[in-house]
Amino acid sequence: MTTSKVFLRNVLGLLLIMSAVLAGLYILLDILALFAYINHEDIIAGLFIHDSFYLLFFFIPPYFIGKYINRPDTIKELEDYLLQKSKTEHY
Fold first, then answer.
1. 7 partner at 20 to 30 Å CA-CA among 17, 46, 55, 82?
2. Cα(64)–Cα(76) distance, integer angstroms
3. What averages of pLDDT result for each successive group of 10 residues across the chain (91 residues)?
4. Domain residue limits at 58
């Protein structure tokens, strides 16, 4: 595993976190829309639903990014790379 692949894996990890946060925001906006609808605030509920609709996209990437990052061969290569790098730094 090269340094660029380690960097790519770290960037994908950050994208995974950002997508998970935005997916959580989608759920939060839908819950707020439900509470607004229960309180007969139809305009506000519609606004929350409309704003949350675009965040629905962020449910898809975390699955595939997580699946790619956590492959057993990728983890093994990363551990070997980090072990080799730590050995070269100490000698």
1. 55
2. 19
3. 79 90 92 95 92 84 84 84 82 65
4. 3-89
